[in-house]
Write a structure and sequence with these properties.
By secondary structure, the chain is α/β, with parallel strands linked by helices. The protein has one domain: Enolase-like C-terminal domain (TIM Barrel, Alpha-Beta Barrel). It has helices spanning 10-19, 29-32, 35-47, 61-72, and strands at 2-3, 24-28, 52-55, 77-80, 93-95, 98-100, 103-105, 114-116. The chain starts with a strand and ends with a strand. One of its GO terms (molecular function) is metal ion binding.
Length: 120
Amino acid sequence: VMADEAVFSLADLSYVIYEEAADFVNIKLMKCGGITDALKIVKTAQVFRMPTMMGCMVETKLANTAALHVALAQPNFAYSDLDGFSSLKEPGVSGGLSFIKGLNYPPKEGGIGSTPLSSF
């Protein structure tokens, strides 16, 4: 069972762990307060041997790329679902992550690997 749309803070994760309500947790940067808070949640989940997934909502490609960077930097992320940008008419950036045959791939460029489009 995955806690999806249930963990937006460290307190939420603590409750899920205490109640043994889930085996996995889905973390979304936009719902948990950003990178710093996401790292607190994932590191706590790792202590309790609870695998995590990096998820998203309908977001820009830049947001999805940042989320993928966080997920790849933490060994506890077992899965990712970062295709929210594919629902947008314009990605807003050139470069960034790729979504190919259901898998996320990081950009090859340095840094975050994307550049804002002038039209965005």
